[in-house]
Specification:
With 187 residues, the chain is α/β, with parallel strands linked by helices. The protein has one domain: Alpha-Beta Barrel (TIM Barrel), CATH 3.20.20.70. It contains 6 helices and 10 strands, in the order βββαβααβαβαββαββ. Strands 1, 2, 3, 4, 5, 6, 7, 8, 9 and 10 form a 10-stranded mixed beta sheet that branches. It is globular, with a radius of gyration of 15 Å. The model is unreliable at 169-175 and 177-184 (pLDDT under 50).
Length: 187
Amino acid sequence: MRIIPVLDLKGGQVVRAQHGRRDRYKPIVTPLSQSPDIVAVAAGLRGLHPFSTFYVADIDAIEGRTPNYDAIAKLQKQTGSPTVWWDAGLADLVNVAAALATPSLCPVLGSESQKDVSVLERFRDHPGLILSLDFFADGYRGPSTLLNKPELWPTCVIVMTLAKVGAARDRISRGCARSRPRRAIAR
């Protein structure tokens, strides 16, 4: 089994998720870190286990604000250069291509951010691409074609139930490996 810690970023700080209600996310308070700084929180997590990958949900970018590039870069410069799965509301060919070209960065295509399946069709065979099928309290968000055609999916797929994020009921996960058949991760 592979466990990948999730760091939600907002305003340059790690925040605590609240049932997917992003307007309620506040800087995290944890015994693992003295501050909500991404490097401090990641170091605290690495004190528990030598995690080599972190999933970073860049809430600012997902909601159309400026991405937290500096925080991502600081995380990637840490000892062992962790791989970052970056969920940033990416929805266009140029930004996805740039993310895929960045070492140790795996872009997450969230279905909630996709207008159609064109980006996925272009990059689905790239080993660094991750698809997140996003579900909210009112159901699936994204193009129906994306949900109904698993042949479009890349090797790694996450099934995200955002209403359960931060609710202590979101702890089922399975690892994705670039060389293995498709697997799903539920969050």
